Amino acid sequence: MSSPNPPSGTAAPASPTLDTAATTTHGGQLSRSLGVGGNVLITLSGISPASSVFILGGAALAGYGTGVFWGFALAGVISILIAFCYAELASRHPIAGGDYSLVSRVLGPASGAAVFFIGMVSLPLIIAIFALGVADYLGFALAGLDPLATALIVIVLATVTACFNIRTNAWVTGVFLFIELAALALLAVLGLVHIERPITDLFDSQALDAATGGLAPLGIAGLVLAVTQGIFSYNGYGGAVYFAEETKNAKRAIARAVLWSAVITVIAELVPLTAVLLGADSLEELFGAGLPVESFLASRAGDTVTVVVLIAIALAIINAIIAIALQSGRLLFAAARDQAMPAALARPLGRVSARTSMPVAATIVMGVIALAACFIPFDVLLNATGSTLAFSYGFIALAAFVVRRSPAAHGTYRMPLWPAPPVLALVAIITIFVIGILDPAQWLSLTIAFGIVAAGYLYFVLYLRHRPGVLHLIDASDDPDDLDGTPVAAGEGRGA
Q1: Which of 30, 146, 153, 482 has its CA 20 to 30 A from that of 13?
Q2: How far apart are CA 83 and CA 420, in angstroms?
Q3: Rounded to the nearest 5 degrees, what angle is found at the Cα of 292, between the Cα atoms of 287 and 296?
Q4: Are the C-beta atoms of 316 and 51 separated by less than 8 Å?
């Protein structure tokens, strides 16, 4: 696949004043060795389209029926809008640390602290959630696996793998990603070669009526919830930003990595789900099945193929854990390098391994937190992560709305139709919050998310605000390798 062109033009690069110390930390430096393709491989692995289709997509089919078609299509549009926001922000500030780094530099350290707390809680908990589900899929080949023991082993192996150099991780995740995309391709083919109904049947959103066993119209609230499920299913394309300092020509390339990751994810999930809806023998039986996607696969391909595919899903989940472990390590590393924590913690966590050019200490610490999270009740894990995504996207959309108050450097990606993408994304996120507030089942998740954000702001008020000059928000966009890879003579740069 050829490298994409951003949807809008970018200015021709010039020779800016550069800071060779921008990505150097305690004598170490992240290795700028990924191309756009390598970044996309790791990012897509963290999204795990296959497990999203089988787990989240299956749950959506059971709950929202044919509303999944419109719900996931609209979610795809919203996701692309948010991807535009990520692309412009990351092009201006191609820095390891993901949402935290972007928000800190655009909205300020108070909001940055809130987003840092979101990441510090959600990333390890997501790893734990994924790991605890691995045994359910590996169990088709290895009966009797204990979910907790399996999760602990998987997290240890994933954390160790995440400490290898970034190119090795790109190859490892790329192999796993190929397997899960092949599983999705098989699912799409099975649905499209045996089409049972025209696509126009999907335009009228209907879901299973538990009382009658037949189909009934899906209300607007149900459709909005289907959109929410789709947004969550597509989530992760912003993960490309975590590897900005390891991506060549990052000022231009990181926008492409974000946009390609978002577009591929939407296609890779929406097409097979639509194929399942078109190819199922009976929509009532599909929506009433305990595991709708697996049920469709078994009816079309047989039990043996189904077992093979489900093992592939287990590998996809493990792959996602590796990718998220990579991201979480860079979050903690970036905050430590910014000195957003006491020096006794920042010094070791901000180091880069001289051998692998990886933030090993930060990655291991996040892995240990994920191990501890495995002992938290599963429903608590789900509630603690359920609404944090909307907050993260809200901060990113707001940052993308205000970012143009400051001039952009040459070569910076500019999203098309600004400010429409961040405004529309904010409207969608506010709608999701309103629906959540009206649904008592979402109150616990929203309360926990509000609490995490409040804790971040409180951390700023009680600690960071009283340490003027300590927070050191370096900008890796000043790294000479960001633009054309041509080093700058010593002494030409600006002090960090």
Answers
A1: 30
A2: 13
A3: 110
A4: yes
Asked if the model's pLDDT at residue 106 lies above 50, the reply is: yes
Interior/surface letters 259-272, b for 16+ CB within 10 angstroms, e for the rest: bbbbbbbbebbbbb
Name the CA radius of gyration of the chain, rounded: 22
Alpha-carbon distance of 70 to 65, in angstroms, equals 10
Please give the Cα distance from 490 to 227 (Å, whole number): 52
Cis peptide before 16 (omega within 30 of 0): no
Annotation: CATH topology of 33-470: Amino acid/polyamine transporter I (1.20.1740)
Give the three-state DSSP class for 439: coil
Determine the residue type at 409. A
Q: Which residue has the tokens 């092949």?
A: 182
Instruction: Report pLDDT for 66.
Output: 96
- Cβ atoms of 322 and 171 within 8 Å: the answer is no
CA 436/CA 430 separation, integer angstroms = 10
Give the pLDDT confidence score for residue 471 in this predicted structure: 67
Nearest to 205 by CA among 194, 192, 191, 220: 220
Helix and strand counts by DSSP (H, E) for the chain: 19, 4
pLDDT score of 17 more than 80:
no
CB neighbour list of residue 381: distance below 8 Å, 6 or more residues apart: 125, 128, 129, 132, 373
pLDDT at 473: 76
Distance CA 19, CA 492 (A): 8
pTM above 0.90, yes or no: no
* Predicted confidence (pLDDT) at residue 485 exceeds the cutoff of 50: no
pLDDT, tens digit, for every residue of 45-63? Answer: 999 999 999 999 999 999 9
Mean pLDDT of 244-273: 96
Instruction: Please determine, for residue 19, whether its predicted confidence score (pLDDT) is greater than 70.
Output: no
- Strand residues in 277-400 grouped as ranges (E): none
CA distance readout (Å), 131 to 151, 225, 354, 468: 4, 26, 30, 41
Residue 207 in 3-state DSSP? strand
Name the residue with tokens 């592939």.
312
- Beta-carbon count within 10 A of 476 CB: 25
Q: Is the pLDDT of residue 476 over 60?
A: no
CA contacts within 13 A on the Cβ side of 214: 3
pLDDT at 141: 75
Please answer whether residues 49 and 265 qualify as being in contact, where contact means their C-beta atoms are separated by less than 8 angstroms. yes
Coarse DSSP helix, strand, coil percentages of the chain, rounded to the nearest 5 percent: 70, 0, 30
CB atoms within 10 A of CB 59: 16
Residue 138 DSSP one-character state:
H
CA atoms of 159 and 56, how far apart (whole Å): 25
Distance CA 83, CA 77 (A): 10
CA distance 159 to 180: 21
Closest CA to 447 of 458, 456, 436, 457: 436
What is the b/e burial string over 11-21, where b = at least 16 CB atoms within 10 angstroms of the residue's CB? eebeebebbbe
User: Domain residues of the chain, as ranges?
Assistant: 33-470
